Each structure stands twice: as structure tokens, then as C-alpha cells.
């Protein structure tokens, strides 16, 4: 089991899940190169149970920010930092990127 999740780990999971054609096994392989080990099941569970939830008490979900940029090419004021971080992650996977 993974333990406490960090915001950078969550953003990495979101970036690879929404922005690449990697399977959960592929995401696991890349995740473990950058962060403490987690299984594909851990990552998928984190994504489905926490990162896709309907409500984020801290404001808009990062998933929504990424989706808005991906679909509409824009985000709300102050959210472009999330997009810059995601694009930096995706830049490391040019042959796997979807957008």
C-alpha cells in the first residue's frame, strides 16, 4: 500500500492518465521512476476514488482544470500554473502524448 499521497504525485497521475495513451501498468512504471513505489492498482484506485470525486473542499478539482484546458484551451484565472506543470510532465513523454 502506498501511504500518504502528495500533490505532485496526484498531478503526475492525472497528467499521465488524461494526457497519454499509457495503461495503468505503464503509468505505474513511470510513477515508480519518480516517486515512492505504487502498484498499478494503487494508482488506479487513487484516480477513481480520490481524483475523480465530485467535490474538492479546496476548490475546483485539478481534473476539471486539466479537462477545461484540454477541451476548450482555457482555464480560469490563477489556474494556468496547474496546466504548466501538466505540460512539463507530458513533455517527457512526446511519443505517448494524446494532446
Structural domain tally = 1
Structural class: mainly alpha
H-E string: HHHHH
Query: What's the total number of strands?
Result: 0
Low-confidence stretches: none
Which sheet architecture does the biggest sheet show? none
**Helical residue percent?**
55-70%
Shape: globular
Radius of gyration: 13 Å
Gap between N and C termini: 31 Å
Please tally the helical runs, counting DSSP H or I stretches of 4 or more residues: 5
Beta-strand percent range: under 5%
For this structure, the quaternary state is single chain
For the residues shown, what is the average pLDDT?
93
Write the layout of secondary structure elements.
Blueprint: H1 7-19, H2 24-34, H3 40-51, H4 62-72, H5 80-90
Amino acid at each position: 500500500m502506498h501511504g500518504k499521497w502528495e500533490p505532485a504525485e496526484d498531478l503526475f497521475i492525472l497528467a499521465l492518465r488524461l494526457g497519454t495513451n499509457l495503461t495503468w501498468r505503464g503509468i505505474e512504471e513511470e510513477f515508480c521512476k519518480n516517486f515512492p513505489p505504487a502498484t498499478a492498482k494503487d494508482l488506479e484506485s487513487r484516480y477513481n476514488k480520490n481524483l475523480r470525486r465530485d467535490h474538492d473542499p479546496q476548490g475546483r478539482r485539478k481534473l476539471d482544470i486539466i479537462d477545461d484546458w484540454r477541451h476548450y484551451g482555457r482555464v480560469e484565472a490563477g489556474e494556468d500554473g496547474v496546466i504548466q506543470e501538466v505540460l512539463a510532465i507530458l513533455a517527457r513523454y512526446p511519443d505517448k502524448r494524446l494532446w
